[in-house]
Amino acid sequence: MITLGLLSIALSVAPIPHLAPVGRTSPFIPVSGSMPMAINHDAEHAHLVLMANDGRVISGPHPMTKDETVDILALMPEIRGLDEAAYLQLMHGDKAVNTAWVVEPALSRRMPLVEQAVSPQRGTWTKVIGWQDEGALDNEDLPAGAGRIDGAALSSPVPRDEAVVRSGWWVYLERDVQMRTDHGDLRIDLREDAAPSTCRNFRALAAMGFYNGTIAHRIIPKGRNGRPFVIQGGDPLGTGEGGPGWWAPLEPSFLGHDYGVISMARADDPDSAGSQWFIALDREETARLDGQYCAFGEVFAGADVIDSMASVELADTDYLSSRPLNPPRVNLTRIMPATPRTPGKGRKDPRVKPATLRDPA
């Protein structure tokens, strides 16, 4: 039973404002379109901020009032020049409220430039050596080298040049993926700013329940340099040979392969990723994967789960198979609202740290 005192407190709490699109059902906004949005409750000092993943403010604060429909493209012209996804956050005073909206630019693809390499460990293999904006391929008016990046591994975003083709924007609520395993739960922050297409592929598979019942079929506690390497899963066959029946293009992610970073496994063809993922276990061992594989997310809850999965007994220790005796199992994946973002800080949930860098319990 609700007491009178509790009831009076409940009635005094103001409704939490929500930001939502107006008159639009598609998440895609063409470059010639508009982006009307409004909030559904009065809120003193409500305002909008557009920020980068790390919290750097790109535009704002812009005041908002109830029933005021605002064209976000007109309010924030900086959106038209975005090269990476940004995050539109509603603020109530200095407090972020509700999940941010991802504003992801639809840009021409940066395709991998490759060469054949030879190494004692791998034999002959296809190595990514750089990137080329496809917008330059059929445009003879551009200068030589337009849209080209020499070097595969990126440590930070590389601005687009005159080769880019801008088609519009995808606008959608930010979502995390929870992976419930028989070792515990992992919560994954998808990095749309680093690898938007790969995030979309993984999020769609997780939402459809594709990963439910799959196993971590490959675990390498010691890589080529003797340090922890990866946990690999996402194959419906559990053999390392299966996939969803389609292939995802390699993206030039600037998210480095560090402990707790999730990336896409693939075959020799750079564009052969499908559903198989891996979690990096040690920066020193996995740094060589930067630019060759697409890192697209960060585990921010479940460090003990990663450690538990990485320490299971192996049926064999062959580097290529490294199959667990009792493979960890993904019981369920769920799509969950992301936590709000704070200007100057970004999300409050940092990526998990290896055991050597964690605070003592």
Features:
361 residues; mainly beta; Immunoglobulin-like; Cyclophilin; 3 domains; 8-stranded antiparallel sheet; 7-stranded antiparallel sheet; globular; disordered N terminus
**Shape field:** globular
Strand order of the largest sheet: 16-17-19-18-20-15-14-21
Helix content: 10-25%
CATH class of the largest domain, anyone?
A: Mainly Beta
Cα end-to-end separation: 39 Å
Low-confidence stretches: 1-12
Instruction: Determine the strand fraction and express it as a percent band.
Output: 25-35%
Query: What value does the average pLDDT take?
Result: 92
Q: Radius of gyration in whole Å, from Cα?
A: 22 Å
State the CATH topology of the largest domain: Cyclophilin
Please, how many helices?
5
Main beta-sheet annotation: 8 strands, antiparallel
**Secondary structure: number of strands:** 23
What features would you describe in this structure?
By secondary structure, the chain is mainly β. The chain is about 10% helix and about 35% strand. The strands form 5 sheets. Strands 16-17-19-18-20-15-14-21 form an 8-stranded antiparallel beta sheet. Strands 2, 4, 5, 7, 8, 9 and 13 form a 7-stranded antiparallel beta sheet that branches. The longest helix has 12 residues, at about 195-205. Mean pLDDT is about 90; it is low at about 1-10.
